[in-house]
Design a protein that fits this description.
Shape: globular
Helix content: 10-25%
Strand order of the largest sheet: 9-15-14-11-12
Order of helices and strands: HHHHEEEHEEEEEEEEEEEE
CATH topology of the largest domain: Immunoglobulin-like
Distance between the termini: 65 Å
Strand content: 25-35%
CATH class of the largest domain: Mainly Beta
Number of strands: 15
Length: 256
């Protein structure tokens, strides 16, 4: 009897183990769909946000556009995010031995480095992207006469948006909020895309890859390309990929 119970226990543990996602591009696409249906910035609470993303992932898996092995990854990225958590940040920590971890903290001041290590505060809401190059900023502290040491983010930042990551026709994140003076760096994850300011496939000439000129006929770029634009005024700036706008490859930069 004891052996039977042990065998059943092992089977249950194997069955509940999270399988590796077999199609990261599909997972990225579903996460983009989830951002449209469950906007992070307007989430009323973290639990309701995660439940919304879980529903999107479930429907995608049921419809066949998302492998079942990737469903848990989509939900995991939602759980490990600041969405619906006012004031929370993603905290990237590196130990003295070089081990990297990410967690969600209640504030930037709660994000502290491990002994002999370092830390930075993520500029994107989910730990799934927060610790990548250009997605994390250093933190400085200033001692005031009263002895208070507030933590502030270091100055103009560079934020990264992936272009066609994994071959998907999408920008990730598709919607990004930054501050005046910040720079957005678009990084091509696959070939045959461009970045053009405007809507509906019509360029408005505000910015475009690779050099902010000739935006009506901006060339397509290859994987590994990077393009940067610094936003010096507040406003909402929509953009698209001219080759794939009909597939919904659009994005928006909101500058505050």
């Amino acid at each position: 009897m004891k052996r039977v119970m042990i065998a059943v226990s092992l089977l249950v543990s194997v069955g509940t183990a999270r399988a590796a996602c077999t199609d990261p591009a599909a997972a990225a696409s579903v996460r983009a769909d989830a951002e449209q249906q469950c906007p992070c910035e307007s989430a009323s609470g973290h639990r309701s946000y995660v439940q919304c993303v879980a529903r999107v992932a479930k429907m995608a898996a049921k419809g066949g556009s998302l492998p079942k092995s990737c469903r848990a990854d989509v939900v995991h990225c939602a759980k490990q995010s600041t969405c619906g958590r006012s004031g929370f940040v993603t905290c990237c920590r590196t130990t003295a031995s070089g081990k990297n971890t990410c967690s969600v903290k209640s504030s930037a001041t709660a994000c502290t480095p491990p002994k002999g290590g370092s830390m930075c505060v993520g500029t994107v809401p989910s730990c799934c992207e927060a610790c990548g190059a250009g997605s994390c900023v250093s933190v400085t502290t200033t001692t005031t006469p009263g002895g208070v040491t507030p933590t502030t983010l270091a100055g103009p930042r560079t934020r990264t948006v992936m272009v066609g990551s994994g071959g998907a026709f999408m920008f990730s994140p598709a919607n990004l909020t930054i501050q005046v003076g910040d720079t957005v760096r678009w990084t091509w994850g696959s070939s045959g895309h461009n970045v053009v300011s405007g809507t509906g496939g019509s360029a408005n000439g505000r910015f475009c890859s690779p050099s902010d000129s000739g935006c009506d006929n901006a060339p397509l770029s290859n994987a590994g390309t990077t393009y940067e634009h610094t936003f010096m005024q507040a406003g909402t700036f929509p953009y698209f990929c001219a080759a794939h706008v009909s597939f919904g490859m659009t994005g928006t930069i909101k500058v505050e």
